[in-house]
From TrEMBL:
Belongs to the WD repeat STRAP family. This is Serine-threonine kinase receptor-associated protein. Transmembrane segments: none annotated. GO terms for cellular component: eukaryotic translation initiation factor 3 complex, eIF3m. Keywords: Cytoplasm, Initiation factor, Protein biosynthesis, Repeat, WD repeat.
Amino acid sequence: MRPIILNGHERPITRLCYNRDGDLIFTAAKNSVANVWFSANGERLGSFHGHDGVIWWLDVDWSTKNLLTASGDYHCKLWDIETGKQIEDFENDAPARTCGISFCGNLLMFTTDETFVEGKNKKSEIIILDKRDPSSLSGASPVLRVFSADKTKVTGAIWGPLNKTIICGHDSGALTVLDVRSGQVLHQIASHKGPVTDIQMHLHLPMFITGSKDHTAKLYSAYDLSSIRTYTTERPINSAAISPTRDHFVRRSNLEH
């Protein structure tokens, strides 16, 4: 298998993911621009400009129509993939760390970092909005808004099977599974010895992969967080993704100083 090197970001990559068909790869980096590439040859298809800070996370919907990005500039943005134009802009009271589009495409999830608001420490939050409801999109009536179940901030989050749960990775290395309706914690484990840097679901199977600064990527069951396999590398892992068409996964590592 011939490796393909993608050169298009001026600063370290923070996140990468495939679309459902596996023909496109979306990447985010600390240079405030998201890119989309053809996975077959590594050619860059286009870019998404509009953020004023680092893009920590991105997610593409099931039909490859919309892209959702979360940025340190306190904004989450919804994009039209075909045109590259911004559709919605969600402003938060804290830097946005992660985001995700539900399998049905109607629900938008994002998480925020810990921050100081009016002189008080505000914990990391998990927020879910409904695209079909204007009051929900404005933030007035969110589907769910809860604080992080772990003592540390959420560093990665994805939708669980059937949109019934949210699976979160934390700065402490822990993994938690939240019920979407109640916000209650269903499962929680100590997964990694370092911060979870990425978490991505398999397209067809109820399992997901995590990346961590502890030099490992791990496969878990999306139902009960049971461990499936561990991959060890020589460097901290920034991002990890499972191919939707082959028995492969791709990881992104950086040398840290």
